[in-house]
Amino acid sequence: MCTVGVVLGGVAPEHEVSIISALQAAAALDRERYTPVPLYIAKDGTWYTGDALLEVDTYRDLDALRDAATPVALHPGGYGTLRVVEVPPESRWERLRRPPLRRDIDVMLLGLHGGPGEDGSVQGLCEAMGVPYTGSGVLGSAVGMDKGLSKQLCQQAGIPVVDFVTLRDNDWAGREDEQLTRCLDTLGLPLIVKPARLGSSIGIARADTRAALDAAIEDALRYDDKVIVEKAVSDLREINCSVLGTPTESTASVLEEPVPSAEEDVLSFQDKYMRESDNNAGGTKTGGPEGMASLDRIIPAELDDATTASIQEMAVQIFQLFECAGVARIDFMIDRATGTVYFNEINTIPGSFSFYLWEPSGIPFDELMHRTIQAAQQRFTEARGRIRTYDVNLLSERSLSGLKGSKG
């Protein structure tokens, strides 16, 4: 039996979205293969565990949750494991009354969205601790999280992206008029403004005037010190594709077309997570926490076979270009006026793990998570098969004398 540490929460604006996605994944795990152990990261960065953390109702009162859950620290375990150890209570009596909780984790199932967790930070922690983890590695996670860098990388690979500029906080402060003029002269109107390293449509806005652009940039800079300003596609279709596999062997899902609400030109946080759903993936409306599965969408997207195949091929190309692994979702835009397909962004830990795209592709949620965990273990085994240390002690007396001699 494989013990899976289900990591959720996190210090990011998408904290609650992460909880929904990770609990969906935990519920989908085949209990004959996997034992889930919740590892909740509170908004202050403290890690907790406890069986109740696998129930969504537990998260309705976060203060009560922290009082009832067990705070833990992480320690390297044996080969390929991570040890989760209870933080000793302050009371000496409590420390003497029972031994601290200890659990060995065989693989980390990362269900974090945005910020530390999807940007390579927690992936780097797993690398340092020597434990397999799901999803993309440090490189793919970091590049995929930065919309500016990911667009530049796609440009260099010949993948179309809409015209854009990037702004940093120190470029903006005190030079607002200059930067507004630069954006307008370079791109014109209308424009889309978004934080460079955030997801779930938080902080995104459309600007049709100079004043609206000013307000949108100010709002986006509340979430990130780097902002993307890009030319809006006026007659837009959004098309998403999920990819599953490794940097060398991967496959694309069916395509979806998300449906924004009538009041919105672009998909908002409310569209994605707070609307009742009557979609092709779910079938019935529900007010419960469904994550990305609650979004109204058309599956499969109504496109001709050639366009569908082209987008799927481009999605796999991007997945492999970023050296991604596990399951990711790549979002595209189609300009109805020209038929041009543009890369928009990649989600290396997609909402709800894009299970709603894989079930119509013939892979149920439990099998999707099994393949994702298998990919994590395969990548770990392959990495550990390489030489990781060099059997020379440069601090030995002989080596030190040699180093001194070379300096002389």
UniProtKB/TrEMBL annotation:
Its EC number is 6.3.2.4. Mg(2+) 2 binds at E345, N347. Its cofactor is Mn(2+); Mg(2+). Keywords: ATP-binding, Cell shape, Cell wall biogenesis/degradation, Cytoplasm, Ligase, Magnesium, Manganese, Metal-binding, Nucleotide-binding, Peptidoglycan synthesis. It is found in: Cytoplasm. GO terms for molecular function: ATP binding; D-alanine-D-alanine ligase activity; metal ion binding. It catalyses: 2 D-alanine + ATP = D-alanyl-D-alanine + ADP + phosphate + H(+). GO terms for biological process: cell wall organization; peptidoglycan biosynthetic process; regulation of cell shape. Mg(2+) 1 binds at D331, E345. The keyword Metal-binding applies. It holds the Pfam family Dala_Dala_lig_N. Pathway: Cell wall biogenesis; peptidoglycan biosynthesis; Glycan biosynthesis. SUPFAM superfamilies: Glutathione synthetase ATP-binding domain-like, PreATP-grasp domain. Residues 151-374 form the ATP-grasp domain. The keyword Chaperone does not apply. Binds 2 magnesium or manganese ions per subunit. InterPro entries: ATP-grasp, ATP_grasp_subdomain_1, D-Ala_lig_Van_CS, D_ala_D_ala, Dala_Dala_lig_C, Dala_Dala_lig_N, PreATP-grasp_dom_sf. The active site is at E14, S200, S352. Its main location: cytoplasm. Cell wall formation. This is D-alanine--D-alanine ligase. It comes from Longimonas halophila. The lineage of its organism: Bacteria, Pseudomonadati, Rhodothermota, Rhodothermia, Rhodothermales. The gene is ddl.
